């Protein structure tokens, strides 16, 4: 991601040319304008498409004309796909054609997003504007209360940018993280209308922050000042069907959230019936919606077949053909907890001592470090030798391993990236063995590892790994099949699925899972090519309730992302609960018997 986020607006329109004109004029009149505007015309018959084509505007408009009306859900699916694949959006700004942005709408949202955290990986995946009606009152259809289950830390972070922690947002001026879209895919087009924005924003924000920014204001030009519970008529069918889909089949809500929202929805429906003047229509919609929800939503490609050639998101780029001897980058983070001696050894073993050294080493200093370690970092060029150029990315404050890796990956100048940690040792022929696998067409290759302590000559255990792609994919739903300190990968493949993202103690596992889900070619070499230091207390840290809480987040994210089934989630949680509560000595032996058998 560039230092200035690239913003792409998505406007979905159907037979509201006059309102669409207000929307585009509002976007064009902003203090900050988006880098591109995708206008999706949902088969309008009122000349909207011709109006957009003839419009004189400073906006860079990408007009997409659909042959049939696929509803708001289908339109936003198309527009968001186009924003991330054709326009490389860092932020996707979505809105209906009855939304009128104000002069500060975009600027206020981007300012809040950038101020939220120095690293994009720690910023909200969803942000929402304050939505007002034409008389300036907050619109009840788009009111977003503070999420009652937000943590104190989430509330503090939101308040620091003048915002409110929320759980969901409507597609009436909503900002979506481009990396989150690339990681978790597109909205569900089969929703047609109603509930698609709730499902999608809760999916993107299930494990990340979501914030409403009151300084970012839009006007919602609805005919009435009211909510969807005011006699919706035949459209109530979509409300019923989609809610049954969401609460029964969806992955965007935790189990307890499904119960809470089911209760809230039942109350809203009761109020809808009480206010309605045509309860027979509503009752018919209730029956048909519940009946049709038995069938799962159709894949987006089926919904849009013959309407738009939808591409998968994430979408892996065509494999770049690398020549034999292709230069590659080494990515190594270092922080204050590392020791100067081990850093020097790790860097030397991954550069000067390699039979095939990297062309560059990108060292990310994650925050201030002690003078002794800084002196070692200052000597990095001498340690690496003349074959490897060294660039140190010095972060002013500690942002954590995920954000440090994200920053470092953006700084790597070559299409192949090799990982190394600041306390491990690479064997001299590591890259001579691994990089040709990438040159031969693989997207990701790891290897086995040897565990060592202070004395690297003493091998404590060997972590074996599945080697073929089928074996790796078979093991992946149950454990991380690629050892992160051994990984070498195509940079373009990692970036196409959103790069490193924050998952407690599993940023690598989540990245590999998304790469494999997108169709990446993965391999492991059976030979141990890295000696991995097991520091004091390593097995103590793998136990206890804190470690199990992290397991819940990781497994929940894998399930929400569609990488594991509900049954696999249950199995993984049960096994990890037992493992985390074992005594330390038993846990160490059990761990090594599973993934690190002594040879």
Structural summary, described in words:
The protein is α/β, with parallel strands linked by helices and 599 residues long. It contains 23 helices and 18 strands. The strands form two sheets. Strands 1, 2, 3, 4, 5, 6, 7, 8 and 9 form a nine-stranded mixed beta sheet that branches. Strands 10, 11, 12, 13, 14, 15, 16, 17 and 18 form a nine-stranded mixed beta sheet that branches. Helix 2 links the parallel strand 2 (36-41) and strand 3. The radius of gyration is 26 Å and the shape is globular. Mean pLDDT is 92; it is low at 594-599.
Mean pLDDT: 92
Shape assignment: globular
The end-to-end span amounts to 44 Å
Radius of gyration: 26 Å
| Range of strand content | 15-25%
Summarize the structure.
This protein has 599 residues and is an alpha/beta fold. 40% of the residues lie in helices and 18% in strands. The strands form 2 sheets. Strands 1, 2, 3, 4, 5, 6, 7, 8 and 9 form a 9-stranded mixed beta sheet that branches. Strands 10, 11, 12, 13, 14, 15, 16, 17 and 18 form a 9-stranded mixed beta sheet that branches.
Jot down its keywords.
single chain, 599 residues, nine-stranded mixed beta sheet, globular, disordered C terminus
List the helices and strands and how they pair.
Elements: E1 7-13, H1 17-28, E2 36-41, H2 48-54, E3 61-65, H3 71-85, E4 91-96, E5 99-101, H4 105-116, E6 126-132, H5 152-160, E7 164-165, E8 172-177, H6 178-184, H7 196-204, E9 210-220, H8 236-249, H9 255-275, H10 279-292, H11 300-303, E10 329-334, H12 340-350, E11 360-366, H13 371-378, H14 380-384, E12 389-395, H15 401-411, E13 416-419, E14 425-426, H16 430-439, E15 444-452, E16 459-463, H17 469-475, E17 488-490, H18 491-496, H19 507-517, E18 522-533, H20 538-541, H21 545-560, H22 566-580, H23 584-595
Parallel strand pairs: 1-2, 1-4, 2-3, 6-9, 10-11, 10-13, 11-12, 15-18
Antiparallel strand pairs: 4-8, 5-9, 6-8, 7-9, 13-17, 14-18, 15-16, 15-17
Helix pairs in contact: 8-9, 8-10, 12-13, 21-22
